[in-house]
Amino acid sequence: xxxxxxxxxxxxxxxxxxxxxxAEDWAQFTRPxxxxxxxxxxxxxxxxxxYQVIVxxxxxxxxxxxxxxxxxxxxxxxPDDLVVWRDGxxxxxxxxHNAFQTFGTDGALEHFVRMSAGxxxxxxxxxxxxxxxxxxxxxxxRQGSPDVLGQMFGALEQLLGGGVSxxxxxxxxxxxxxxxxxxVAAEPVLQAWRVPRExxxxxxxxxxxxNESRATRAVVGMMTGATMFFEPDLHWDALPDGTIAYSDxxxxxxxxxxxxGSLIGVLRxxxxxxxxxxxxxxxxxxxxxxxxxxxxxxxxxxxxxxxxSLPDAYREGMEARExxxxxxxxxxxxxxxxxxxxxxxxxDEPWDDDGPIDVFGADRQYVGTFPAGATRIPRxxxxxxxxxxWELDELDVPGIVVKRLPDVLR
Length: 410
Hints:
- The chain is of the alpha+beta class.
- Helix content is about 15%, strand content about 30%.
- The chain has a four-stranded antiparallel sheet, with no helix packed on it. The chain has a four-stranded antiparallel sheet with strand order 2-3-4-5, with no helix packed on it.
- Helix 4 (about 280-295) runs antiparallel to helix 6 (about 310-320).
- The chain is globular, with a radius of gyration of 22 Å.
């Protein structure tokens, strides 16, 4: 293992920009969303608010837009995410249709694939639909949703007169989805390590939902108590050959799992997790309360009036929340176009996610490290070193900048 960081510089040349305040109508993005490259270097962007996928070429010129709001096939009701394969086909999971819609290289609808009952929009949170393309078109990987969301949505389904959905895997698992049939076929790939904890007996009932104060405290209690402060998250991505790279503990250990689920390697660097002490405990609680106060300032007063007990319930939940014993080192794992791996570490403070970024080559050898703040991990990696980032201007108007990586980072 390389004992010291080998510094990298982030002076990537710019290729093109799209979006911004004076952009054409098709590039008036409402907010940053998922995007991905195909093998020709075309960039696909999902604009959820516009109910469409925008495709631009290697020069940033519009190729086509796909989709619109509506109830029919090829139209979107609640587009959640975007998966782009190298051959130029792509898929959009739509919770409104409870289906994946797959499109050909010409943007025409090819397939309408229903989600199973366990993948219904009330059984899986869209934010938990962490999707990555597989090596073959129509194949993708998905991380499951937190158990607590299943309990909350299950109570809502009872209220609405439906059945209770269960996910194929939980938030510590990854499954392979196949979109070739009429219904999504799912196969578990791996189950990551989880912190041993006593099972909670707390459940959200219809009686809870009928009372604002009780419902708020029950929901906040379930959310804040579902995980500990600093409990290691599952950070992962899929490499071009279908290998899964993931981190599931507080240590710097990136496990590599073959498509059949077998462990084929572990990447390590000599960065140890920091033990949680009294200073870290009090600082973490203060940080969480500051972030919550900022959210309240940006929340509509009418919305707050619907849940007047929320601030007190949240503070109680934060102060009662348990702590994991160590501060995890790894915060993000992302795969590059050719099989490189970008691993972001924690920052100077334990709650800072924007620390240095290590890069490993496709040969699994350590390449170097970007210092904290030098760059962000790209939102999308493409061929020939193309990478895409979202940027916000001084008025918070989103735009996309595409740059090119040097050979050593491709």
